[in-house]
Amino acid sequence: MGRKQGVKIGAASDVFDDFMMPSRYKAMYGGRGSGKSHFFAEALVANAATNQGFRAVCIREVQKTLKESAKRLIEDKIIKMGFSHLFEVLNDQIKTPGGGTIIFVGMQDHTAASITSLEGFNVVWCEEAQTLSARSLELLRPTIRAPGSELWFGWNPRNARDPVDLFFRGMNPPENAIIRRINYDENKLFPDELEEERIHDKTSNPDRYDHIWNGGYEPQAINAIFTRQMIHDARRDVAPDLDRILVGVDPAVTNTSNSDYHGVAVCAVGDDQRGYLLEDASLHGSPHEWATRAVAMYDKWEADGIVVEINQGGDMVKHTIESVRKGIRIIEVRATRGKHVRAEPTSALYSLGRISHVGTFPELEDQLCKFTSSGYDGSDSPDRAEAAIWCFAELFPKMTTAKSEQKEFYGHATAGGWMG
Predict the structure, then answer these.
(1) Of 121, 6, 114, 140, nearest in space to 61 by CA
(2) How confident is the model at residue 259, as a pLDDT?
(3) Domain containing residue 18: CATH number
(4) Residue 172 forms part of a structural domain
């Protein structure tokens, strides 16, 4: 709901002006000190003060006590904005003019049946929306259905696969939505005390600074050679015309319920000479099942070959694929260096913005961000990521030759090759 004229919202500055207009969804994401929560709290109070019978619900995924809610912030705004005579603050809710209410709930406590009690509410404000589960988002959206009702979301991004991020920042964001990234430098009321904290974090906590203050994704492993931000910044929803397509396979050693996945990834080089990750088709299963999946991806994408890492299985890997389809082109590669060393040339291309993910591949991206300069920092096997890395190594052959030929990537030469 839009606020009525004459109600002053102190936290508002130019950056918040768009959010004054009616819209089904209002989504703000960013770092600490941006004023997101203060704006939404003041907007909630202003709407309640000027619309008789206004009903709002403030939601978190988990809310064990009201101390974890926005109730105290809203109470402070009621006083600061001079509306104390209009509201009745109770232990578990705030009564608004004309018989309305502001309540505070945890979505984890609701079922599909109980959530229907919110059908007639005018506004939902989801705090810390990065913690909201896919189930909660799915329950909430169709429940809020009063005429002109709005859903407000504020969050500091953690991961591209968080449901709220996928919904608002994915390939298909909702229509009738105002979506903005807002940080401390756009908040005209950013306090001096927080500025001191920000400067301290910039020098003493550089690994987490971007997440804390700029709304970047949660940092990956320490000294990671891939970052979530570089992956997200280069993401595309459509690939260009493709010159060469490969299917990469990194088979698991065993086939049990506790085995690693068989990594199966589809990668390509476009006519723009950039790399593209097209699909993560990794799976659990038998050797015949991963081979069948690899051949299916080969057919689906009209690929030029299947790249297979053969350290563990030797000739058996090739035989397994040929048992599904004889005559298919198989490119065998053998690892002679550590996982992180094999990943470094590909990470260089990512850092230069020369590889894009066409869509979102959460599990594979998680694995990429566990590669560090000293090893793979994960308890799982980087099967999905390795399948893609093998593909890109084959698609960009200069990365697999002697380092003396890699000056364009690193600016220096040392003996040896990156890959076997």
Answers:
(1) 140
(2) 65
(3) 3.40.50.300
(4) yes
Over pLDDT 70: what percentage of the chain?
A: 88
Residue-level pLDDT at 274: 96
**Which of 186, 212, 245 lies at the terminal end of a domain, its last residue?**
186
For the sheet with 93-96, list strands across it.
Answer: 88-89, 93-96, 100-106, 55-60, 123-126, 150-155, 25-29, 177-181
367-390: pLDDT as tens digits: 999 898 888 888 778 999 999 999
Same domain flag for 160 and 246: no
Alpha-carbon distance of 391 to 308, in angstroms, equals 9
Helix, coil or strand: residue 273: coil
Structural domain harbouring 331: 231-410
CATH number of the domain within which 373 lies: 3.30.420.240
Within this chain, do residues 236 and 145 fall inside the same structural domain, yes or no? no
Distance from C-alpha of 410 to C-alpha of 351, rounded to nearest angstrom? 12
- Environment class of 96 (CB within 10 Å of its CB; exposed 0-12, middle 13-18, buried 19+): buried
Mind listing the pLDDT tens digit for each residue in 181-229? 999 999 988 999 999 999 998 888 777 888 899 998 887 777 889 988 8
Domain boundary residue, one of 125, 159, 186: 186
How is residue 358 written in tokens?
Answer: 């066409």
Tokens of 267: 């990668």
State both tokens at 382: 């980087």
Strand, helix or coil at 114? Answer: helix
Q: How many domains does the chain have?
A: 2
Please give the span between the terminal C-alpha atoms of the chain, in angstroms, as a whole number: 61
**Strand-strand pairing, 242-250 and 150-155:** unpaired
The single residue listed with the structure tokens 């920000």 is: 198
CB 395 within 8 A of CB 387: no
Mean residue pLDDT of the chain comes to 86
On whether both 109 and 241 belong to a single domain, the answer is: no
| Maximum mean pLDDT: which of 61-65, 107-111, 225-229 | 225-229
Integer Cα distance of 14 and 12 in angstroms: 7
